[in-house]
Amino acid sequence: MSPKDEMNGKDVKTVILQAAKKLFALKGFEGTTVRQICDEAGVSLALVSYHFGGKENVFYALFEPLRHYFAKMHYDLADPVADLREFIEKFVDYRYEERYLICILQQELMMKSPRVEKLTYAIFPTWEQLRSILQAGMNRGAIRFPSLEFAVNFTMGTIISSMPDPYLNPMEDKREMTPAEAAQLTVRFVFNGLGIDIKQ
C-alpha cells in the first residue's frame, strides 16, 4: 500500500490514530506496542513508521485536535461568568466526544509521566483560557475564591472528571447522562465552589 492509499475509504493516518487512541486509553502508553496498534488498525508496521516514525509521535499527534479545538476559542471577558459557563459546556462536550483522549490525558497527568512536559504545548491554551476567565471574574468580584491557582486546578480537575467512572462509582441507575446534563451539573458544582451566584 502506498502512503497515499486509503483503506476502506478512511485515511490511513486517521485509522492508525483512532486505533492508538483506544489502546492508549485502555492499556496505557507503556502497555501498548506498535504491533498492537497495527493489528487494531489493520495496517502494516511500515505504515506507522512512515507516517509517524514511532509510537511516541503517534501519541503526541493524538493531542493536536485538542490544541486546535481550544486555541480557536476566544473570550472577550466582558462577562467572565458567562465565559466560564461557556468554557465548561464546551469542555464537557469535548469530554464526551473524545472519551479516550481525555482518559489518556488523565492517566498522563496522574502518573506525571515523562510525556507530560511535552504535552504542555497541547493543553497550555486551555489552561490559559481558564486562568484568564477566572482572573477576570475575581477582579470584578463575581468569583469569590481566595486563590487563582487553586481555582484553576479545582475547576479543571472537575471538568476533566465530569464523566462518571463505572469502576470507581458504580451506580444503580445505569442511564448515562447526556453531555448537556453533565455540563449543567458541572457548572453548578464549579459555580458553588467558586462562590458564584448560580443564577448568573
Automatic annotation (TrEMBL):
GO molecular function, one term: DNA binding
Domain of life: Bacteria
This protein's UniProt keywords: DNA-binding
Entry annotated with the keyword Transmembrane helix: no
Domain HTH tetR-type: 10-70
InterPro entries (UniProt xref): DNA-bd_HTH_TetR-type_CS, Homeodomain-like_sf, HTH-type_TetR-like_transc_reg, HTH_TetR, Tet_transcr_reg_TetR-rel_C_sf
SUPFAM superfamilies (UniProt xref): Homeodomain-like, Tetracyclin repressor-like, C-terminal domain
Any single biological process term in GO: regulation of DNA-templated transcription
Keyword match DNA-binding: yes
DNA-binding region: 33-52
Protein name: HTH tetR-type domain-containing protein
